[in-house]
Every structure is written in structure tokens, then in C-alpha cells.
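Human: I hope this is not a bother. Would you mind checking the protein record under this note? Thank you for your patience.
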Amino acid sequence: MEHDGSSDKSERETHDDWDTTGNDNGGRLTEESDMEQSDEMSLGPLATAYVEQNAEEITEAGEFSQVETVSEENKGLIWSLLKQLRPGMDLSKVVLPTFILEPRSFLDKLSDYYYHADLLSQASLEESAYGRIKQVLRWYLSGFYKKPKGLKKPYNPILGETFRCCWLHPQTDSCTFYIAEQVSHHPPISAFHVCNRKDGFCISGSILAKSKFYGNSLSAILDGKARLLFLSRDEEYVITMPYAHCKGILYGTMTLELGGKVTVECKKTKCFAELEFKLKPFLPYSGSVNQISGKIVMGDELMATIDGHW
């Protein structure tokens, strides 16, 4: 990756070249090439080959994707675990049963928000500051659409664990790279960096994951900020995250919602956007699930209001 800063060559092409070189002799290395390889290995650790994930089970869109019925047997396990807890307690040190865990790491889970990173390629081309922050919001909300099946908590990464992936963008013939690392165990902090130099954007940040238990419900709080930088414009957008609220753990249907206020702010252009993720009210009415509302402000001027469902 020594030429990564100046080259737009994708990781996949790099590994294709590697495979071609290694198979020139019928798939076996000669003694000479074996010695050369051992010399290279001594210089540093070898990277793991990138394997593309072709199939992924994604849930259907809508309210029913956020509801799950827990079996009585599993509820008994949860009840025996939660009897040891107190309301308001942090769950980061609690070992949870595997049936409520998603079969992937939190570092992998964070990459879902960049599934539609090609929208940022369009945002960097917008001429007006107002047009750019609108496109940034469009990308931001698209990150909540990609949702794996089931209401599951991802595994806590171990200290030093990393996760890498990339997305190819045929429209711009570019590639967005993602890398995340668990940089602290207690408290659990995940750091990440996303980069597409050809299309002119980078994102970096760190997130402290907290969980609060309230009896029949719990909240997962992502405390931290992501910083989106448009390289050609030297503009930085500081972005926060909503919290996830899960209710119906002990009785009722287990339901997941997003709540809280988030902000997207660029000090250079004096653009500010605020979004509120609304929890379902106690007395439901039509269209009351997954609601958002917000506004876009430039300086002291209200440019737009936002209303709808995420």
C-alpha cells in the first residue's frame, strides 16, 4: 500500500496481480522466488488477502424489520441475566448470550453507513455550499437503510482487532476504502477511516459505544463524531449519531427504534443541519414510526426544513 496516496488502483486489482505473479510456475514458487518472498516477509507482517462478500441477507424495509419475537426459552435466559442488573447500569462489561448477538463485529457494523458512499462523490461536485450539505444529509440518511436481518447486537471487538473493506464505484471508476480498529477495550472505543482520494473525500472518527439498561428496555449510545473532509474544497463536516432504543426485552414484542438529535456542521461555509429521530409515541397514530424532522441553516437564514421517515 506504499503508493496508496497517489494511486487509484483498487485492492482487488492489486491482489489479481499478486496471484498472477505467484502462478507463473504452475502455482509453485521456485527456490529463488521463495527466498525473495522470505526476505519480504521479514520486513513486516503480510496483509490478509481481500475476499469479496457476494451474498448478504438484508431485511425488508419498513416497520416490521425492527420487530422480533423472542422465544420463551431465550426469554428465561435473558431474565436470569438481567436479574443481576440495576436500572441505569452500563452493559459494556456484561457478557450477553449468543442468541442476541449478530454474527459479525461492531467494526463491520459501522461500515454499513458507507454502503452508499457514491453519494459523497456527487456531493463533492456540487457548486453551492447549500447543495453540498443537502447531498451530505442524503448520504447520511442512506446509511440507515442497509440493515442486516434480525434485531441483534454486534460482537464487541477485541483490542487491536481491525476490519477492512472497499466499495467499487463504476460511475466514477473509483474505489472507497474503509478500515476500522478497536483502539480501547475499557471503555470500548472504535476508530475508523474512510477514503476515496480520486472522488475527493475522506472520513475519520472514533466512537465510544455505551449501553444503558432500563428494565424492559435498553439504549445503545454511540458517543463520538465523524469528520467528513472534501479534499479539493478543504471543507470539514462534523457529524454525530443517534442512539438505538430497544424495548420489549422481558415482555411484549422486542422492537428497535432510533432516537435523539444529531447535527451536521461545517464551520467554513457556516452551514448547519439538525435532525431529530423520533421514538414512537405512547399513543400511536398513522405514520408515527421511524419519523424524522429537521432543518438546514446557513448563517442565520433558515434554508430548508426536513420531514419524513428514515
